Amino acid sequence: MLGLNNIRRWLMLLTMTSLGENKPTELIRQALWRARFLESLARQLGENVVNDDFMMGLFSILDALLDQSMQESLQEISLADHVHDGLLDLNSPMGKKLAMSFALERGDWDAVKAFTQDGRRMAYTDVARLQTEAIAWADAQMSALSTL
User: Fold this and answer.
1) CA-wise closest residue to 17 among 25, 5, 7, 8
2) pLDDT digits (tens, 9 = 90+) for 106-120
3) What are the strands, taking DSSP E only, across 43-121?
4) List of E strands, 4-144
5) Quick one: which of 52, 41, 32, 50 has its CA closest to 127?
6) What is 117-134 written as a DSSP string?
7) Domain regions of the chain by residue span
8) Mind listing the pLDDT tens digit for each residue in 19-36?
9) Closest CA to 32 of 143, 137, 133, 147
C-alpha cells in the first residue's frame, strides 16, 4: 500500500532524524523542505526521475548533521553519480537545482529569476507556489515525526 518509493523515503528520513538526534529539529525541517521542493521542481521541469532530487534534498544537510564537510560526509555513502555531483558542485545539472533552493532560503531573488529564465520556461510564480507547498508539506511531516 505504501509503495517502495515511500518506504525508501521514510527509511531515509528516519536515518537522517537519528543522525540529527542532538541537532536542532529545524535542520530536519530544512532537509524535508529541500527534498520536497527539489522533487516538485524536477516535476515542474518535466523530468522523469524525481526520486533522486528528493534524496539530494534530504542529504543536503548531511554536513551539518555530521559536523564535517560535505565531501567528507559523502565518503562512506554510495549515491548515484549525478546526486553526488549535485551535492558537491552547484554548477552541475543537479547542483543547479540545489543552488535554487539555497537562493530561495537566502531570499536571493536575482538568482531565482536567473534560474527561471535560463531556458527553463518556468514562471517565477510557479517557484513561489512550489516553495509554499514544500514548506506546508515539511511542516506536516515534522508533525507526523513528532508523534513517533
Assistant:
1) 25
2) 999 999 988 888 776
3) none
4) none
5) 41
6) TSS----HHHHHHHHHHH
7) 4-146
8) 656 778 888 899 999 999
9) 137
